[in-house]
Amino acid sequence: MFITRLTKTAFVAAIAFFASLVSFGNITDYGTNYAFVQHVLMMDTIFPDATIKYRAITSPTLHHAAYNFIIAMETLTAILCWIGAFSMLGRLRSGASAFNHAKKWAIAGLALGFLVWQVGFMSIGGEWFGMWMSQTWNGIESAFRFFITIIAVLIFVVLPDQELTD
Predict the structure, then answer these.
(1) Pairwise CA distance, residues 118 & 40, whole Å
(2) Which of 44, 74, 83, 138 can bridge 105 by disulfide, Cβ–Cβ 3.0-4.6 Å?
């Protein structure tokens, strides 16, 4: 049972590390991924005959607001997962109730991460703004990999842990 707790903690730390790298990259290389968000919102690279172009957002102010919101949610995902990983790490050898309770921050961070990539990128970017139609600015595959990994970790983490045995 100890190895299971250690594995859950390591998996949460891995997601925290990933979200930290994504957030750090978006902050330190703002322009690269800002261009991505801008093109998705402007819908300027979707199929020319698409009838959903009325959904496009052309305001640079709203592009920056959306991108800053994404960065904030990625950063919050990282922070919550780090808090969760350290909380779980501190209770590895505690009773089952204490360890299960320590998972709350990890669960919050993993849930937020799932929502960022599934709702934000797959649903809003992919479907509402037609990102799937773009040959150039299509983040569907990456977002799918991210949220599938996150949901798998979330499912593993929420499984209740038992008392440690000798």
Answers:
(1) 16
(2) 83
